[in-house]
Amino acid sequence: MAEHPAVAGAPPSVGGADRASTYRTIALRVMPLLVVCYVVSFIDRTNIGIAQQGLKRDLGFGSAVYGLGVTLFFVGFILFEVPSNALLAKIGARKTLVRIMATWGVVTIATLFVQDELTFYLARFLLGVAEAGFFPGALYLLSRWFPSARRTRMTAVFFIGVPVSGVLGSIVSGWIMHSLGGAAGLADWQWLFLIEGIPPILLAVAVAFFLADEPERAKWLTPAQKALVRADLAEERASKGESHGGGLLSALRDPKVWILGLCACGAYTLANAVSYWTPRIIAEAGVGDVLNLGLFSAIPPLLGIVVMLLVGRHSDRTLERRWHAAVSWLVAAVAMLALAFSGGSVFVVVVLLAVMAAAHYSGLTVFYSIPSIYLSERAAATGIAVVTSMGSFAAAASPSLLGFIQASTGSLSLGLVISSGIVLLAVAVLLLGVKAKDLNEKHR
């Protein structure tokens, strides 16, 4: 987190506190726990991708049932996203994250009792309800600790949780199902939900004791360090003025919130292709063993980690957001189109999935720094929630669409072509709807 060489009006220290050292201290304290929480969140959200092999074998769930199950997760997510973040603004991020993680852990464990399509749909819906608010709540928390010129780097660090969850989730889930199936009378997928539902409950306890809502409440910062962060954030708020304040109503009246929401539709369509359909695409290329499926599914997120951090860092150094996100999504759309016509080679499929994943993670990281840069502090929590909720509509629709297309045609190719078109539309909306002058940032 080195200082930019051309920083003007941003002294390296304030009141005796060194700026680089202060933000390094905050990052080392806040980010590891937040990243681990996100890793576990995404594993519990997407482990159904590996579990579907066992669910198909034991309960007869086909692609259409699986797709609708993924969709119902987002239905619950959409319905409770904004209310969860409205509550966050009142009770604080720490209590909100504790509530969310403890609840989703319980629901994940309860999923082992699924017996038919109805209980499967109910479990996925309740998981969406439980997880609603975690992602925008975490981004809101970052806005309380880091000024925007540093926040994309921290957002990139936070987003490491997505590819890391893809790596760990694929390997661990594959191993659980490969090794524990039948033990104690439980099927492999039942062990999966039981074991992977315990960590979020333990993490809820850790967050309650070790995470603070804002620097003023952090006993591990000196008064001078608190003053430095307070001054940086106050300067950022002042640069935005007061015209964007006012919480939910202000966010809903702001056309750029809706523009960003439309962009999020493309981002979430892409996210679903990466997170939920990667195992199925690899399986269709000829990988049948569940352990090998997990290992191959872990490759794309590994590349994603490296590329995402590089793109996020470069975006912060240049303070350029729009083109970093747009070019990343463009690359992902091209890779998705190529997947539709790849011919079924395992090597080609894994390479294209790796390119698509790396571009997806990079674009999403930069894109989600934009709402907190543009919106005022009062509007940030609800504004991010509105953007996320709009994206979740696409996330809710696309799994059922892809599942229906595969069930009807026997292939995901047409679904991938349609999804790539949605991503390309998001690129156009971002570049045309959000102007560079709307993102007023300074290096700090």
Account of the 3D structure:
With 444 residues, this protein is mostly helical. It has one domain (20-438): Growth Hormone, Chain: A. Helix content is 78%, strand content 1%. The protein is built from 21 helices and 2 strands. The protein has helices at residues 19-46, 48-59, 63-91, 93-110, 117-131, 134-143, 148-159, 161-180, 188-196, 198-210, 223-240, 247-253, 255-275, 278-284, 290-297, 299-318, 322-340, 346-367, 370-374, 377-409, 413-433, and strands at residues 13-14, 17-18. It has a two-stranded antiparallel ribbon. Strand 1 and strand 2 (17-18) form a beta hairpin. Helix 6 (134-143) packs antiparallel against helix 20, helix 8 runs antiparallel to helix 16 (299-318) and helix 14 packs across helix 15. The N and C termini lie close together (11 Å). Residues 1-9 have low confidence and may be disordered.
Biggest sheet overview = 2 strands, antiparallel
Helix content: over 70%
Low-pLDDT runs of 5+ residues are 1-9
Number of helices: 21
Number of strands: 2
Radius of gyration: 21 Å
Integer tally of domains: 1
The CATH H-level superfamily is MFS general substrate transporter like domains
In short:
The protein has 444 residues and is mainly alpha-helical.
Write the SSE topology:
Elements: E1 13-14, E2 17-18, H1 19-46, H2 48-59, H3 63-91, H4 93-110, H5 117-131, H6 134-143, H7 148-159, H8 161-180, H9 188-196, H10 198-210, H11 223-240, H12 247-253, H13 255-275, H14 278-284, H15 290-297, H16 299-318, H17 322-340, H18 346-367, H19 370-374, H20 377-409, H21 413-433
Antiparallel strand pairs: 1-2
